[in-house]
Specification:
heterodimer, A: alpha/beta, TIM Barrel, 8-stranded parallel β-barrel, globular, B: alpha/beta, Rossmann fold, 8-stranded mixed sheet
Amino acid sequence: MFKRIIPRLDIKGPNLVKGIHLEGLRVLGKPEQFAKYYYEQGADELMFIDCVASLYERNSLMDIIRKTAKEIFIPLTVGGGIRTLEDIKNILRAGADKVSLNTAAIRNPELIREASNRFGSSTVVVTIEAIQHADGLYYAYIDNGREETGKEVVAWAKECEQLGAGELLITSVDKEGTGSGANIDLINKLTAGLTIPVIAHGGIGNKEHVAEVFSTTSVSAVALASILHYDAVANIHYEKADYSLEGNTSFLKQGASSGRFSPFRISDIKAHLVQQHIDCRVD
Amino acid sequence: MGTKKIVIVDYEMGNLHSVDNACKLLGYETTISSDRDTIRSASALILPGVGAFGHAMANLDALGLIDPIKDHIQRGNPFLGVCLGFQLLFEESSEFGVHKGLAILKGTVDRFPASSQGQPLKVPHMGWNRLQIVQDNRFSQGLNPNEFMYFVHSYYTNPTNPSIIFSKTTYEGFEYCSSVSQENILAVQFHPEKSSIKGLKLLNNWLTSIE
């Protein structure tokens, strides 16, 4: 199948934020603007993750999804703080095509089965946040990498598939925000026993890293945040009236100049993949 | 635009709003309805749908919508079927037991084979894939023969009459019919409302055809 590039937008309230190692959130701007920019650049899907999903902030996320679904016509995945079938129904009604489950799936694995029975397997993405322990194995975490669950990720991934998950997203917490390349070891261990598609996330800092993960593992897609946000911040035309980004975007510019991340457009990444004979959607 | 009444059939099978949003973006107002009389009064019908075939037919039956939809199509009125709404046009499906369809088109709906060209076939077929458009008509205007569209499905259609095939798609070496067009009918396995600019172009071609 054609490899997919999925921009990942971490949302806090009405804002797009970016964290380092899933901590230290900073406001980047309006998610709707970034989403539209990525759509126009050839994103294959979009993923919105509510990273501080408190109940009173929920309406912001729903508003973002409803607005996005009116303007953007590619699949939308929404996650963060989803606990019940009712939550899933509401998110799908707002215009999402898939939901991503993490904490609730770990606490109640039956939710995966119930959700896939009711809404279809292809609607259910399970997100796994992995951290490597001293024994060399990877363990699943929740709460943005803060809480350990004791679940070894290869076994947990297999269980998710058996319960009916349609896709898995694997985040290497160790690599997240570092720009040092994807965690190939983790991804290969995870995909070895699976037949469902896997999305790789965490550590990708340049287009060569994207090509590397597709040519050395069997993942179907990569989720990208930082590498794309640097380019987007530089190119989105902000309306002065609606945002004060001072002090927020400056760190992105520093990050870009520090060399950890090379800002690239989706179109540049895809052109590189085509050059490397990796099939992806290019018009 | 929009002197014609476009009705999107709501039969509790998945996301109707994406199709609605796409029509609105293209400048067409729609009505989402599960009401028999509203559907009978439509000048053009859209049947979307995601889910199991048998469940879908049972819902259409319970809502009394089978005859209104069949009458609409058989009278030559414009019809767009998407995903499950495409598969339902055929005579029967083998999804979770054999279920009768609307039987407007001759043929069956079958599960993807377990393997293709000696390799296990991952089901569902999910993601972007190419069309191979084999008809040159008002629906293909402005589209290249090999456009990318977004697919999510585990079953595929086998039309008896190959001349109705609008496009074919090849999934890991397995070629199948990914859409049909016949007079007033356009019905597609993929999701034009999730297939970016080219999907919207195809949808616009259909919307333009009903004017």
